[in-house]
Amino acid sequence: xxxxxxxxxxxxxxxxxxxxxxxxxxxxxxxxxxxxxxxxxxxxxxxxxxxxxxxxxxxxxxxxxxxxxxxxxxxxxxxxxxxxxxxxxxxxxxxxxxxxxx
Length: 102
Hints:
Blueprint: E1 2-10, E2 14-18, E3 21-31, E4 37-43, H1 45-51, E5 59-71, E6 74-86, E7 98-99
Parallel strand pairs: 4-6
Antiparallel strand pairs: 1-3, 1-5, 1-7, 2-3, 3-4, 5-6
């Protein structure tokens, strides 16, 4: 899914090490038009380098996937960001748009 969203908060970078090497991720919380929030997690150093520069109320074009999985009879849902592009301040009004083909 692709949307233009407004940054609410940017969490700290979380990093670690696995058998495949070092990893890092960062969660960004976006404001939706109806004042609800959407927390999106971005994995990988390329995406985290971009998310580190974000400021509250900044508009971004975000591409993300929503995935659910079952574990021990309970369901867990993740929102994983696959692309983020900060937009220049003042160039657009906040009006979330959705493109189902992203």
